[in-house]
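Anyone? Bumping this.
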Amino acid sequence: MSLLADEHPLIIFVGAGGVGKTTLAAALGVASARAGRDTLVMTFDPSLRLKDALGVGQEAKEHAVRVDLEAVGELHASLLDARRTFDRLIERYAPDAEARRRVLGNRFYQHLSGSLGGILEYMAVERLFEVAAAGRYRQVVLDTPPTRQALDFLEAPARIVGFLDSGALRVALRPWFDEQGRLKATARLGGLGRRAERFLDEVVGLDLLRDMAEFFQAFSPLFAGFRERANQVEELLRSPQTLFVLVAGPGEERIPDTLFFARRLQQAGYHLGPIVVNRVHPEPEEPLRLGPPGSPGSPQSPPGSAPVPGLVDGIQLLTWLGERDRQGLVQLAQLLSDDQPLVDLPLRAEEPTDLPSLADLGADLEDRLADWRQHLRREG
Amino acid sequence: MDLAARLGRLQLLVVTGKGGVGKTAAAAGLGRLLAAAGRRVLVLEVDPRENVHQMLGVAPSGGAIVGAGTRLWVQNLKPGRVLDDIVRERLKVEMLARRVLASPIYEQFSAGAPGLKELAILGHALRLLRRVGPPDAPQLDLVVLDAPATGHGVRLLAAPRLVSEVIGTGPFGALAGELAGFVADPERCGIVVVTQAEEMPVEEALELREALASQLGRQPELLIVNGLFPPLPAGLERPEIFDPVDPLLPPEPPPPSPEMPLATGLLTFWRHRRFLNERELERLARWWEGPRIELPLLALERGPALTEALRQLLAAGLVAERG
């Protein structure tokens, strides 16, 4: 198994927040460029050091930036900014300057907090689709947003379609307000309508509804194209050529999360590649095993000195962490089917934050996967 | 004033920070600490996985308020349910309420209206403190909120003002206005930021501090730096000590591959991680004004024993911060 040799033009890294998805995505991007492919890494929220390493700044929110890497293939990087993408989409699709001004200046749009039918999450997928459609790169590596519910991101296209079909939009697009901006008589709904109207005014105030209605009306010309695009994006995500890499934290307590992610991905029909258990604490080593204090060669007693205070506690902590992580790995392996690729990557002494160390990490990931394949052959 | 006493006088303590830094553990430890100090405390969690329950040794309770020890309760909150409750309370007629709750416009409104979910979370805490919520709820002095991760945490605290700007009138507007005042008042609402001494979490903590100042005019009451590798014992900070000393042996070969970061073993690893911690602690010392407690990485699984250890460490840390 190799992520690169198997020709998946799109590789998507998913997993909970804080497990190192972004760094791994960048590392695989570097490895891919070194393997001779023109590669794009799309990421959400890289650390300052990682941005420095890739040499990208704010401009990468507008367009992909060439990374200064000496490799056979070119490496480009872009930063995903849902809001900017949405703004651009409006600028592109708005029929005229007045319509554009109306949407961009709408209070509801300005405060849109990312939950409305998953529109903001959808924007990132939309950007991915643009890149894939342009066909400029042989390899695209996508990092996903750092949310606890990371799969929300993938469901965004389906949610948009659901939203468009739900009738909510028709309700929202109804001419609710007359030209004076007052709620139109809802007489045909009878008593219920009048009560609902009173309720709405009392509970939410009509100002907000007015803003919402205006937003949806100003935005309605865009919705037509949305459905088709959303379906195409969905197709792209489910294509057998698109491979998902699930990144997980080490330790037993993370196992339920990891299994949950893996099952949901597979049940939803996405193609799950390897599960990578990242940042595994080092295995306790022979020379650092705790001997009786003061025994020759034991670490807490360098030759000719008394036992060092704090050393035993520190070594015990590190040993505990190493063993906890290894137990977690063993248990996870038992719970997964035999043909599910599972590899672990060590917690490094230093976080990889420059191109050479990213290249190392990418190569390490590829090596681990090759080992896994060999192991499987031996077993089989 | 004594920081422990100051935290104890608050009515709402919002615990936030980047995902994976130990926010929930810190919230549980603070809850235990303040309950032990005599306050009636609810630890409120919004994450659907009910991790606070595990930290306090209580079985998942599916949204109910349950006791977790003397003067301590825990609840896992579903924000959507709070909104539905408010609608039911206002409309009284069950049939009408059901029709409103089932209507697509309400569904989209409650899911999409900016800040409404966040408002529901804070509003729920306020209602419990004032005993206007469910009649069987315990009398409380303080709610410790295990808040969503950084960006969402700011959004949570900024929501009342946002909503009160967008919705001026009605019960939601009034609630928003009241909550905006509550959140802005350092006598009633406190903010605890949890981080780890690694680059990304520290970066987020500093950004969060800035966002709180600019958007809310607030400063966090406390920064908790969690999961520190212990300092190297004196004399072992330098690598030579553990290099092979037998002159008859050839020098150790370099590590076989980059996956062996332990060039000279576990100790080198420890040294590097500690160095990383210290670098970030220095950055915090330079840029973070205000009380700070450092907590060591503990060899304990998630659960009540870890919470108890954190309670003791937090108590000691708060005493050290006095003055």
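Late reply, but here is one note on the structure posted above: Chain B has twelve helices and eight strands.
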